[in-house]
Amino acid sequence: DAKTTQPPSMDCAEGRAANLPCNHSTISGNEYVYWYRQIHSQGPQYIIHGLKNNETNEMASLIITEDRKSSTLILPHATLRDTAVYYCIVKEADSWGKLQFGAGTQVVVTP
Amino acid sequence: EADIYQTPRYLVIGTGKKITLECSQTMGHDKMYWYQQDPGMELHLIHYSYGVNSTEKGDLSSESTVSRIRTEHFPLTLESARPSHTSQYLCASSTRLNEQFFGPGTRLTVL
What we know:
The structure holds two protein chains of two kinds.
Chain A: E1 9-13, E2 18-23, E3 31-38, E4 45-50, E5 55-56, E6 61-64, E7 70-75, E8 84-92, E9 105-110
Chain B: E1 4-7, E2 10-13, E3 19-25, E4 31-37, E5 44-51, E6 54-57, E7 65-66, E8 76-78, E9 87-94, E10 100-102, E11 106-110
Parallel strand pairs in B: 2-11
Antiparallel strand pairs in B: 1-3, 3-8, 4-5, 4-9, 5-6, 7-8, 9-10, 9-11
């Protein structure tokens, strides 16, 4: 599975958009980009995933570059409850493998 | 909201005791997982299952064992608990497209 690189931490003001980058330069053609987050002491929560087109759901938007070597998760209006560790994971969608969680990005939303 | 449950949520137990951590899901998912996570540290996969009667060891070596007799049930057992087993244990199940849903976790303390 392709390896991902994320910044260790970032701050965001409440009400502003949070843009979380992820590099995955070795991604292969059939690998999807998944985003999860983990709020302190809770189990991780699935956010969104995509292959090459941009995706949007009620939680976030996912922008994938045309060469698919990087992506950005956008939280459009960050709230204090969005403070969490965010994980970017690359994986084949329809495979029996497991997800490899790395260190992620610690996002702190401040008032 | 995902229907995946873990019991107990908290467990404090003495060294040498046998314990079983329960995990159940009502979504009919074939794939299930057990992760171990120490405070502030990364998630590590310790066991996973592709379906009934299928179990595999994960990336992190663990003295625990698992069983998968029914699709909805994936218990984890420690035959003889030790202080080094103190950690949070997270159970998850996933759709065919690897959208993983996590339970609330069991925080285990071995004295």
